[in-house]
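Notebook entry, structure prediction.
Reason for the run: the old model in the group folder had no record of what sequence produced it. Starting over properly, with the input documented here first.
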Amino acid sequence: MSQHEHILVLRFSSLGDVAMLVPVFREVFKTYPDVKITLLSREKMKPLFEEFKAVDFFPFDPRKHRGILGLWKLFFALKKQHIMAVADLHYVLRSRVLSLFFIFSGIKVKHLNKNRRARRELINTKKKDLKPLGSIHNCYAQIFDNLGYPIDLSQHQYPKSPSRKPTAIIEGFKVEKRKWIGIAPFAAHLGKRYPLDLMQKVVSYLQQEHDVFLLGGGIEEEKQLMLWASAYKNAHSITNFSFNRQLKLIAHLDVMLSMDSANGHIAANFNIPVITLWGMTHPHAGFKPFNQPEENQITLNRNRYPKIPTSIYGNKIPQGYEEAFRSIAPEEIIEKVLWVLNLKET
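New structure, fully documented this time:
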């Protein structure tokens, strides 16, 4: 293999999908130490990749890079980086147009297969075919294979764990020497959000014996988490943390409780046990956090709710399923969290 092989990776959003690149990149660099990657993504994603010296982050601005002209200018800026191959891991209109420019210039391009037919069969509410699709991590890895860089994610190795709970991360909090639990109760769509009144019961119980760190973004989410933090002595909202500081705290958690959303993927990248709550979505769609066991996936009872999953992204709630998430009792979630904490101690 020649030196300085340079791959352009296109993945503009969303946070969870971009975070899922991390274990793939680790394996690429372990297998091919002379490869360099330029990642084209939103500026806010950059802290996810600080561990990689061989990743050049190129910020994608949807306003600046809009339309054919904007993408053409972006292509010329990227071409100056001496790109040798392109991995389109998003495969949306913008990435496809940009990829075409590289193809016309003689550069090899491979794109993500979204397997739309299998996805349609998975979420068909009338005739359900609940076959597990390939994980998104493996789909990403397949593109590198197609470019001539096969990797084996089963050989993935995590970076060395950081030192235990540095005080700089928790400055301003009165935190005891107890287990740290992360709870991320929000998601982009209602079909992926566990009811807040039930989640409050989970927070209320767990904070009695452990420190609970609450994660979320957006004004309304911040207000809700601040209310819980003010109501419970050992619940701490970290919505005012910078993204970098949030990542450092997540790396020191003992367990993460998350919806089918980004914080679960981020925690999994640090080898933190992740318990995921699945509403209208399902782990068979391929978005299970990396290397997390099936027993950590809490799903709705399909005997009672046979249409699950109703969508890939949780944006479709069929009539009669509005309260389906309530069928998962807070006690079940609490027991699972305590079980994982006890498992870590053995």
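Summary: The first strand starts at residue 5 and ends at 10.
The old model has been moved to the deprecated folder.
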